[in-house]
Design a protein that fits this description.
mainly alpha, Mem_transp_PIN-like
Amino acid sequence: MVLARKFVLDPDTIGKINLYGLTAPLAFDSLMKTKVSLTEGLTLGGALLLVSALGALIAWLVTLRAPRGTKAGVVGAVVLGNNGNFGLPIALLALGQVGMDQAMILFVVSLVVMFTVGPILMGSGGGILSGLKNFAKLPVTWGMALAGLLRLLNWQLPIGISRGIELLAGAAVPMVLLALGVQLTQSQRLQLTRPVLTAVGLRVVAFPLLAVAVAALLRMDAMATSSLVLACAMPTAVNAFMLAREYGSDPETAASAVALSTLLSVGSLTVVISVLPASLV
């Protein structure tokens, strides 16, 4: 934040470095080393999708009489969480490497939702197929696919290549923390309208509670429950505003929801982490 106030730091450039340069090595390295089983990964991903669907339904019902663009902005702000800049470093700090591995799975699932369902929520006419094509172009997709193939075949990369990937993976979390600082510095567009307060209330309060209910329903263990709840406690992603601006679904509401949820999450995440099982923190 200090650097962003003193110098001109382009958040788009930092975002591109993260998404196209560092996230893929981080995903590859995490999946090659993770102890999360396929069953646990599928359960985590399915749980996040279920929470997202329930959150979207509640947001849609609450804003039933709102204009279409406002309704889309609220639903998008509730469903699209910041599981990258916020989620990855906080999971590492709060839950350790196992939590980080699970957070990576949840982050990838959130990326799928963001680039497939997100544009549809915000008014795109391209459909899910168009979103899947965009997701297939992301390096993180290919990084995960390569890691999955190598693990399936029980192969390892040459030591020189794997060390290089480890170096890039190690740069990912510090870089997303830098991006987070820039984001917090630029979170100045704030309008306390009813749609904004509705979106933020659902995202910051209702979403983590839904995660608790879904985790109980699926009988998830303590670590998986903590990872899911922590992921669902993250603020609205900046991409919610970018998608709203791209497709004309009330970008003002989305921008204010991003700013307010980000500010409030400093306190709400502290509460969430404090009530996680004592053996995990």
